[in-house]
């Protein structure tokens, strides 16, 4: 069977997020039998239109029968007009994007010989062609579910935040557009693959999808790699020229709490900072390590609550900002962290939790349905800052509990293998 796959998600911002992670691992861990059985057509943006280089540089295409076809840049009006007339241009561009979702991706034209097209980015348009089977992977509807933090309704914008009627209407329009665009994509998909039962149920309840059209295909976790006992990292620090990096040597004997990920509003990192402050104030010799593309210092984080918590911390020098880290650094941190802390209220899957557990790292997580589905009883689940502090203290004081958590975590991730996950996704795509 000939399968088309859009590689543009790993040529832009999604490369550093869950969508890019899924696409890269889907291809890199595809079993040999699937590589031989199917033909693949990869669609890529031209170099001048991509934020990153050639996506093939990070993909393992060994043993695959494949070809590369170009994506044309999405149709967009780039002309600038004076003042508020630019709203006309923005509106026209929005209509062009909706047209793509309704009638087919204008970037993709050469699909006549394909049997099926797999789109791993839920917000990206599916190609045209009635006879072409279209499969869409969906992750979550976080901006819609967490309305308070993301896409405000008219009532929230008007009554809670004091917006004018015009501004509140714009918020309402953005919220409506988010759902409308996804609805168009879902309607055109022949099959939908949800990364968890939580995601499946959210999409069914929000979009009234027929249960026979949506299937759960859980993601996987890569097998851990063993690295040296000590490692040299690059730590960000503030200068008059902005944030710069300097070498940082971390020893495996240094106790530290770890968070890897973004800093959007649903990630309650301010709670983690509060817990860290309490631990340091009580005399605990411990560091807090923050890694992720936005983790370069307080001012680099746009979420006001998190930025404020970091700026006012009396122990800011003991908070280590690493920014985006490579796989070797990430793996070392998981292996040697005192605990990986996941202070998130809502999640579509929770890959970092699985990653941490695969290295035997104890996990403390805010209780949310996706994490409990994926991680089972291996983490310590907490509901608030006080419980989070108690959980960290328990790990500090009880080697027996740590050993139990390591064993439970390793057992839990045995079933979460990327090779199995890749095969399952391709199997669902082609049947």
Topology:
Elements: E1 2-6, H1 18-28, H2 32-37, E2 39-44, E3 65-70, H3 86-103, E4 116-119, E5 133-138, H4 142-145, H5 154-160, H6 165-188, E6 191-194, H7 197-207, E7 214-216, E8 231-239, E9 242-250, E10 256-260, H8 269-281, E11 287-291, H9 304-311, E12 319-323, H10 327-336, E13 339-342, H11 351-358, E14 363-366, H12 369-375, E15 380-382, H13 385-397, H14 399-412, H15 418-430
Helix pairs in contact: 5-6, 8-9, 8-13, 11-14
Task: Tell me what you see in this structure.
The chain has 431 residues and is an alpha/beta fold. The chain folds into two domains: 2-220 and 419-430, Rossmann fold (3-Layer(aba) Sandwich), CATH 3.40.50.2000; 231-415, Glycogen Phosphorylase B (Rossmann fold, 3-Layer(aba) Sandwich). It contains 15 helices and 15 strands. α5 (154-160) packs antiparallel against α6 and α8 (269-281) packs parallel to α9 (304-311). The chain is globular and about 65 Å long. The N and C termini lie close together (10 Å).
Keywords:
about 425 residues, alpha/beta, Rossmann fold, 2 domains, seven-stranded parallel sheet, 15 strands, about 40% helix, about 20% strand
Structural class: alpha/beta
Q: What are the low-pLDDT stretches, counting only 5+ consecutive residues below 50?
A: none
Largest sheet: number of strands, sense, barrel closure:
7 strands, parallel
Task: Please estimate the helix content.
Answer: 25-40%
How many E-type strands? 15
CATH homologous superfamily annotation of the largest domain: Glycogen Phosphorylase B
Domain count: the total is: 2
- Give the N-to-C terminal Cα separation: 10 Å
> Which sequence of strands runs across the widest sheet?
3-2-1-4-5-6-7
Shape: globular
């Amino acid at each position: 069977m000939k399968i088309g796959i859009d590689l543009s998600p790993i040529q832009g911002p999604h490369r550093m997020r869950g969508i890019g992670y899924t696409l890269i691992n889907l291809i890199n861990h595809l079993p040999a039998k699937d590589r031989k059985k199917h033909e693949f057509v990869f669609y890529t943006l031209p170099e001048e239109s991509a934020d990153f280089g050639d996506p093939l540089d990070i993909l393992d295409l060994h043993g695959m029968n494949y070809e590369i076809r170009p994506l044309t840049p999405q149709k967009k009006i780039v002309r600038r007009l004076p003042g508020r007339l630019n709203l006309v241009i923005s509106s026209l561009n929005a209509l062009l994007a909706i047209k793509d979702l309704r009638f087919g991706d204008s970037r993709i034209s050469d699909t006549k010989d394909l049997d099926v097209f797999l789109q791993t980015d839920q917000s990206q348009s599916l190609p045209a062609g009635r006879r072409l089977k279209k499969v869409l992977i969906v992750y979550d509807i976080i901006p819609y579910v967490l309305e308070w933090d993301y896409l405000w309704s008219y009532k929230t914008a008007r009554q809670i935040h004091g917006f004018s009627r015009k501004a509140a209407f714009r918020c309402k329009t953005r919220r409506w557009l988010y759902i409308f665009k996804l609805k168009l994509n879902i309607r055109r998909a022949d099959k939908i693959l949800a990364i968890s039962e939580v995601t499946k149920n959210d999409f069914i309840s929000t979009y009234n999808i027929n249960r026979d059209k949506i299937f759960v295909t859980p993601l996987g976790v890569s097998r851990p790699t063993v690295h040296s006992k000590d490692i040299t990292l690059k730590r960000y620090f503030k200068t008059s020229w902005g944030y710069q990096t300097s070498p940082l040597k971390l020893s495996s004997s240094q106790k530290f709490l770890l968070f890897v990920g973004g800093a959007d509003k649903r990630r309650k990192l301010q709670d983690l900072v509060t817990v860290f402050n309490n631990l340091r104030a009580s005399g605990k010799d411990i560091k807090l390590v923050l890694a992720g593309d936005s983790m370069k210092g307080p001012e680099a984080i746009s979420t006001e609550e998190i930025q404020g918590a970091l700026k006012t911390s009396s122990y800011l020098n003991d908070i280590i900002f690493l920014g985006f880290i490579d796989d070797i650094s990430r793996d070392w941190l998981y292996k040697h962290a005192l605990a990986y802390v996941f202070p998130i209220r809502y999640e579509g899957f929770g890959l970092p939790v699985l990653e941490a557990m695969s290295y035997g790292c104890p996990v403390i997580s805010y209780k949310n349905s996706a994490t409990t589905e994926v991680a089972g009883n291996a983490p310590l689940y907490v509901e608030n800052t006080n419980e989070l502090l108690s959980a960290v203290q328990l790990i500090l004081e009880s080697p027996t509990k740590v050993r139990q958590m390591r064993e439970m975590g390793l057992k839990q991730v045995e079933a979460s293998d990327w090779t199995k996950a890749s095969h399952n996704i391709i199997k669902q795509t082609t049947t």
